[in-house]
């Protein structure tokens, strides 16, 4: 979803994949894999650099193509404290799989009590 949105905004602004990669300081192949949704978990720092080059904010990158705002929906459903924890986990490099493993372990441990 994010990759398709980046591609859409980039094309609307008439910026080539090569130019965006160069200006954002990421490898062209990495940016291409993000746009094709092969890289599904880019870091917040990379997304912020891409957003800056595209002269948009980070929320615009996570906005779905049909106009519904996934970030806004998440904020409405999740307390700010949980969102901040998720951001910290992403920024620290924890993968989704590692986080899922942690949750599974915690659930198992609580069941053992």
Provide structural commentary:
The protein is mainly alpha-helical and 113 residues long. The chain has two domains: 2-62, lambda repressor-like DNA-binding domains (434 Repressor (Amino-terminal Domain), Orthogonal Bundle), CATH 1.10.260; 78-112, no CATH class. 70% of the residues lie in helices and 0% in strands. The protein contains eight helices and no strands. The chain has helices at 2-12, 17-24, 28-35, 44-53, 58-62, 70-77, 80-91, 96-112. Helix 2 (17-24) packs across helix 3 and helix 2 packs across helix 4 (44-53). The longest helix has 17 residues, at 96-112. The protein starts with a helix and ends with a helix.
Distinctive features:
mainly alpha; 434 Repressor (Amino-terminal Domain); 2 domains; 8 helices; 70% helix; elongated
Sum this structure up briefly.
The chain is mainly alpha-helical.
Distance between the termini: 40 Å
* Number of discrete domains: 2
Given as residue ranges, the uncertain stretches (5+ residues, pLDDT < 50) are none
Oligomeric organization of the protein chains: single chain
Secondary-structure-derived class = mainly alpha
**The CATH fourth-level homologous superfamily of the largest domain:** lambda repressor-like DNA-binding domains
Largest sheet: none
> Number of helix segments?
8
CATH topology of the largest domain: 434 Repressor (Amino-terminal Domain)
What top-tier CATH class of the largest domain fits best? Mainly Alpha
Helix and strand run: HHHHHHHH
Q: Outline, from the CA principal axes? A: elongated
């Amino acid at each position: 979803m994010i990759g398709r949105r980046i591609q859409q905004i980039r094309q609307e602004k008439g910026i080539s994949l090569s130019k965006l990669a160069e200006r954002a300081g990421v490898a062209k192949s990495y940016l291409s894999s993000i746009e094709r949704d092969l890289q599904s978990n880019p870091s917040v720092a990379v997304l912020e650099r891409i957003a800056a080059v595209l002269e948009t904010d980070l929320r615009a990158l996570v906005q779905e193509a049909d106009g519904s705002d996934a970030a806004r929906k998440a904020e409405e459903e999740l307390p700010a404290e949980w969102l901040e924890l998720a951001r910290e986990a992403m920024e620290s490099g924890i993968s989704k799989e590692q986080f899922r493993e942690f949750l599974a372990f915690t659930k198992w441990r609580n069941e053992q009590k």
